Amino acid sequence: MAETEARFDYVIVGAGSAGCVLANRLSEDPNVTVAVLEAGGKNNSLLVKMPAGVGQLIANKGVSNWGFETTPQKHLDNRILYQPRGRGWGGSSAINGMIYIRGHARDYDQWRQMGLNGWGYADVLPYFKRAQHHDDGADAWNATGGPLCVSRGPPGDPIYKAFIQAGRQAGFPVTRDFNGYQQEGVGPYHLTIRDGERCSAALSYLAPVIDRPNLKVITDAHAGRVIIENKKAIGVEFSAGPGKPVQRVLAGREVILSGGAFQSPQLLLLSGIGPADELRKLDIPVVHDAPDVGRNLQDHLDVCIIYEMTKPLSMYSKTKGLKQPMIGLQYMFFKQGAGRTNHLHAGAFLKTRGELDRPDIQLHLVNAVMRDHARIKPDRDGFTVHACQLRPESRGTVKLASRNPFDAPLIDPNYLASEVDRRTMRDSVRVVRDICSQDALKLHRGPEMAPGAEVRTDAEIDAWIRGNAETIYHPVGTVRMGADDKAPVDEQLRVRGLDGLRVIDASVMPTLIGGNTNAPTIMIAEKLADLMRGKPALPRQDAPIAEDERAAVA
Ligand SMILES: Cc1cc2nc3c(=O)[nH]c(=O)nc-3n(C[C@H](O)[C@H](O)[C@H](O)COP(=O)(O)OP(=O)(O)OC[C@H]3O[C@@H](n4cnc5c(N)ncnc54)[C@H](O)[C@@H]3O)c2cc1C
After folding, report:
1. Known catalytic residue at 104
2. Could you report the per-residue pLDDT of 341-386, keeping only the tens digit for each?
3. 473: number of CA atoms within 13 Å, CB side?
4. How sure is the predictor about 542, in pLDDT bands with cuts at 50, 70 and 90?
5. pTM, to two decimals
6. Helix, strand or coil for residue 500?
7. How far is the CA of 391 from the CAs of 188, 297, 308, 329, in angstroms?
8. Residues 135-173: tens digit of each pLDDT
9. How far apart are the C-alpha atoms of 509 and 358, rounded to whole Å?
10. For residue 427, with 0-12 CB atoms within 10 Å meaning exposed, 13-18 middle and 19 or more buried, which class applies?
11. Measured between alpha carbons, how far is 254 from 236 in angstroms, rounded to an integer?
12. Cα separations in angstroms, 300 against 327, 360, 434, 474, 543
């Protein structure tokens, strides 16, 4: 039974990438009151602040990381995969890799073509720009003055330059800005790092406005149910943990779920909004039969192609023995040294087949031997090329394990259910091997550790992928926005069939965009904040993109 009640105009569940943007933008109006419920804490540890802390944050389930797992994956030898997710201020932006990518322009034009008015590239570009402050200055694609700081990494280790040269030698274009004129190519990543500090959504959007009298952020507040009366969301029940008192917070205007792609559908289901038959099986009263809540899960599956390194230049040698604590101390006291960056400075967006209108794979180069999300510590020098498929056909689900809000949801991404997905992943291994065999990497490259020289045929590569592929952390689509009646939310992200309830986070993306998902989630929240405040949409802005890539856009 609920013990206490407070009332605000808006109640936001989740202080992650989307939730922080909404908290900031909605509370800009001093006449409006906003509450944010966040299950985690303030995330003010050194590891969160220091970009080089990323490996430990991802590897360790704990205060900043929910550390979920998938159900056994049928097409991956029934393996259970690790699924880190951010917890606390900043959500996943507090533990993510800090790669700043928007996806391909055509991804958004495709949303518009699906009937989602206002979501084409020209519609969303102004919101990407409003969010951004790029250290390089403004151009047709980038802006200055926004809260989210984007910078280029330092030149970094020689491996990054060598990799880009190797890509060129393999016949791929070089791209200086994957968010600019041409996504396709090999090039440097731009990073959400501000002056050597992780620029999470909390640092950029929440911390600067935390003293506003009309904004209240409640930490250790795990939402368990949306309170609905007469088909209208009127508040949220939450508590600090299992067995702790349940409290209620009421929303005069709207409840907004920003719990992310696993937990927003979970909360809808717990609130009786979802497939009626599934809810009945768990004795959850059906408030609204919405069969597609929790469906349409898409994620980027990834493999790590690993090479030994001929010289002691990788993170292994750089952090050996006492060097790692020294890096931490140097950063803590002087904000200098190797702690200032994420050590993820180069990558690629490539096509596995010439006839494609957009790159279908993405590469991330890490100057370290990366195994099992860094949970297996490197024992030698080496480098890893992550390869993921950008637009999988496979679709999975998020379901309830029980009606207990503290039980993790059942996450089934159903990876590699489609032949196209299996072929693309296989091709991605061959593309990486092609790049890594070029002369530019000769000085650095030792023997291939994974998959290993003996893995050559299609069948051998497929078997290796089944036994080793993992997520690269971009789940979306579980509360998809759609123009059709079955879509759980409409193009204004209102939950269909109910009043006063929106979902605003990565779960609303109808299709996975071609790239990392933090900046797109922030863009979505920026755009919705305008809409909710009754402001006109920012004027559409087109920016040129490479003609061959645009040819297929209507
Ligand atoms: C390890 C990792 C690495 C990544 N690397 C990159 C990268 O380099 N670049 C990039 O662009 N993207 C990256 N991503 C993806 C990107 O960070 C996410 O897509 C994005 O942050 C999602 O934002 P969101 O608002 O949907 O959810 P989140 O940011 O995950 O926020 C959800 C918030 O809701 C809270 N919450 C959940 N349920 C409840 C509840 N019941 N009650 C109260 N609070 C609740 C959570 O604690 C969390 O704070 C990465 C993600 C991860 C996990």
Report:
1. no
2. 998 999 999 999 999 999 999 999 999 999 999 999 999 999 999 9
3. 23
4. confident
5. 0.98
6. coil
7. 22, 12, 30, 41
8. 999 999 999 999 999 999 777 789 999 999 999 999 999
9. 18
10. buried
11. 10
12. 32, 11, 22, 6, 27
Residue in 264, 307, 254 with CA at minimum distance from that of residue 447: 307
Q: Which amino acid is at 39?
A: A
At which residue do the structure tokens 């007469």 appear? 230
The 3 state secondary structure assigned to 153-215 is: CCCCCHHHHHHHHHHHHCCCCECCCCCCCCCCEEEECEECEECCEECCHHHHHHHHHCCCCCE
Q: What is the pLDDT of residue 5?
A: 78
Name which residue sits closest to atom 45 of ligand 1, judged by CA: 14
User: Is 188's C-beta closer than 6 angstroms to any atom of ligand 1?
Assistant: no
Strands 470-471, 301-309: pairing kind: antiparallel
C-alpha 259 to ligand 1 mean position (Å)? 8
- Which ligand 1 atom sits closest to the C-alpha of 238? 42
Q: Is 223 in the pocket of ligand 1 (CB under 6 A)?
A: yes
How would you list the strands of the sheet with 148-152, edge to edge? Answer: 132-134, 148-152, 190-191
Number of residues that this document lists for the chain: 554
| Average pLDDT of the residues in 476-491 | 98
Distance CA 147, CA 28 (A): 14
Q: Which two tokens stand for residue 46?
A: 């050194």
Q: Is the Cβ atom of 516 under 6 angstroms away from ligand 1?
A: yes
| 251 φ/ψ angles, rounded to the nearest 5 degrees | -120, 115
Tokens of 71: 């159900």
Residues 6+ apart with CB under 8 A from 173: 182, 184, 185, 186
Residue 273's identity, in one-letter code, is: I
